[in-house]
Design a protein that fits this description.
CATH architecture of the largest domain: Alpha Horseshoe
Largest sheet: 5 strands, parallel
Bound molecules: flavin-adenine dinucleotide, iron/sulfur cluster
Number of domains: 3
Strand order of the largest sheet: 4-2-1-5-6
Number of strands: 11
Number of helices: 20
Radius of gyration: 24 Å
Helix content: 40-55%
CATH class of the largest domain: Mainly Alpha
CATH topology of the largest domain: Serine Threonine Protein Phosphatase 5, Tetratricopeptide repeat
């Protein structure tokens, strides 16, 4: 039976059962398509990284003796639409069966179901064999109970026997989060991590001449991301040897000295499935080798494993539990457009200047920059979650909707009203000043709430609390902040509000 098998751009899992045996009846197909480059404005590095990783994967399959049809973005036969390309190949190759792997995005899931209803050959869908949970598993696990990441994470530790001693967590504690909140001291050396340099060749011109809109920058026409499985494994080894020893400790720190600090930069490789999450977890867990250093290592190792075994799987589970309703959630009814400097980095607020410029330069910012700088400001300023989502979905190399929207709309913008986060992730300048070196070189004063050069985060923070008092005052995790607010006299509250309104009306020039 002549089969056509579709491989999407984020399905580069060479260990999938599909490839266990050579089969002359099978043709694999991969497409670079306008429908994927145009659903949001992506960072140029993201488009390049996807296409180059896909091309390398297609070459690898061919080298293993498989038949692969790969339609590049400017291929004359490329119809630029998934359904039309599949229909065209089914007819041209006299295909008798169509097969695909479960997509991670709702829009593609729907589209593929429609395609299967329209083609005149039978179809079959396969698991991607990547995640550690089924699509519906998080939803089924919680049932009627409240979604709680920590509970799910412990369940996963037991299920996969990760960092366990019998039924108990290794070291006696499940979570070392409290130890993971250190600012980075001046003397600590941060490794440079320049492992990969891939020349992008003429692909950049092809993307431009096709008229694809992109954002961001690429230095020296060279990509510095792992694009093949070999490179991804090298990045993992490097992380474990050089970065893991400081990962947990400085996980939340921010510094103008380095965009990456001790973060792994494995998210792209994981999300396109060049790496399997369990392989990453086991490799990191092996660091616990029973010596007297283990207790120290556990803080770093647990801190990292929690992100992948816990957060990553949890976010995917929430996505499949809550889409499509999740797409329109807007708890605070925010409508302000995102300031245009999110696309240029031209703001005088040094924290935002850094977080945005490094995102434009590297298609990367780490978790706390995304959450407590760019996300925090957008929430305090009342920006529309649709615009915030589109920005995050475009700018980051690892942004695929299942993990982007849950983190952005849910965790960062609280647009789901608290399904994902127990309170909004907002802060005044105090937190940014504590966790970074940004404030000391800023035009604004982190200590001032009102008046000339007062840090905008301060008045916006109190203004946000006043504005949403009805929605938030009953949240017990906010009670300390509301107690402080309630102690302020009416005049001071008015002053803060006035200051915030002044900044909001001049948001483009902050
Ligand atoms: C507003 C916002 C948007 C985000 N958008 C994305 C996104 O589009 N794609 C994405 O992969 N991550 C996203 N994250 C999560 C996190 O910021 C990135 O996974 C991380 O910064 C990637 O860099 P790294 O590989 O160096 O991560 P590390 O800090 O080294 O962490 C290791 C791995 O853990 C996983 N991980 C860590 N935190 C999370 C999390 N909250 N959710 C899911 N997985 C996590 C990632 O796979 C990551 O590679 C977002 C976070 C926020 C606050
Ligand atoms: S003073 Fe305010 S705007 Fe400036 S870096 Fe600090 S937090 Fe950011």
């Amino acid at each position: 039976m002549k089969k056509l098998r579709l491989i999407l751009g984020d399905q580069l899992n060479a260990d999938h059962q599909w490839y266990d045996q050579e089969d002359d009846e099978v043709t694999y197909c991969m497409f670079e398509m306008r429908q994927e480059t145009d659903y949001v404005t992506h960072h140029i590095q993201k488009v390049l990284a996807f296409f180059l990783a896909m091309r390398a994967f297609a070459d690898q399959l061919r080298d293993r003796g498989n038949r692969v049809i790969y339609l590049e973005i400017d291929h004359p036969k490329n119809l630029q639409d998934l359904g039309e390309n599949i229909q065209m190949l089914i007819q041209r190759l006299n295909i008798e069966k169509f097969e695909y792997q479960l997509p991670d995005e709702y829009r593609l899931d729907q589209q593929l179901k429609e395609i299967c209803g329209e083609i005149n050959v039978p179809s079959e869908v396969f698991d991607t064999e990547h995640f550690l949970t089924e699509r519906e598993e998080v939803k089924d696990y919680f049932g009627e109970r409240e979604f709680l990441m920590e509970r799910f994470y412990r369940h996963m530790r037991k299920k996969y026997n990760v960092l366990m001693q019998g039924d108990e967590p290794l070291g006696g504690r499940w979570n070392y989060d409290r130890e993971n909140r250190k600012k980075i001291p001046a003397g600590v050396e941060i490794p440079s991590f320049n492992l990969f340099e891939t020349e992008v060749g003429d692909l950049m011109e092809k993307i431009e001449s096709a008229g694809i809109q992109t954002m961001g920058r690429l230095e020296d026409r060279t990509l510095r991301w792992p694009l093949t499985r070999e490179e991804a494994k090298k990045a993992l080894d490097y992380f474990i040897d050089q970065l893991l020893p400081n990962f947990g400790k400085y996980q939340d720190a921010m510094t103008s000295r380095s965009p990456f600090l001790f973060h792994s930069r494995l998210s792209f490789a994981l999300n396109v499935k060049l790496l399997h999450p369990l392989e990453v977890i086991r490799a990191v867990e092996e660091r616990m080798d029973g010596d007297e250093e283990d207790e120290k290592k556990l803080t770093q190792v647990e801190g990292f494993i929690r992100q992948i075994l816990g957060w990553r799987e949890y976010m995917r589970g929430i996505y499949w539990a809550k889409v499509p309703e999740y797409f329109t959630k807007n708890y605070f009814e925010h409508t302000t457009p995102l300031p245009s400097w999110y696309w240029t980095g031209e703001t005088k607020m040094n924290c935002l200047h850094h977080a945005i410029n490094q995102s434009l330069d590297h298609a990367y910012a780490h978790h706390i920059q995304r959450l407590m700088v760019t996300g925090n400001f957008a929430l305090l300023a009342g920006c529309s979650p649709d615009e915030v989502d589109a920005w995050y979905l475009g700018i980051y190399i690892d942004a695929i909707e299942w993990v982007e929207i849950t983190n952005t709309r849910g965790m960062s913008q609280y647009a789901d009203g608290g399904l994902l986060a127990t309170k909004p992730y907002i802060s005044s300048a105090n937190y940014i000043n504590k966790m970074s070196d940004y404030c000391k070189n800023c035009k604004y004063d982190p200590k001032k709430k009102t008046g000339e050069d007062a840090c905008p985060f301060n008045s916006l923070y109190w203004n946000f609390l006043m504005k949403h008092e009805k929605l938030l005052e009953k949240n017990h995790r906010m009670s300390m902040m509301y107690n402080l607010l309630n102690k302020m006299d009416e005049e001071y509250r008015k002053e803060l509000k006035k200051q915030a309104e002044k900044y909001l009306s001049n948001i483009e020039n902050l």
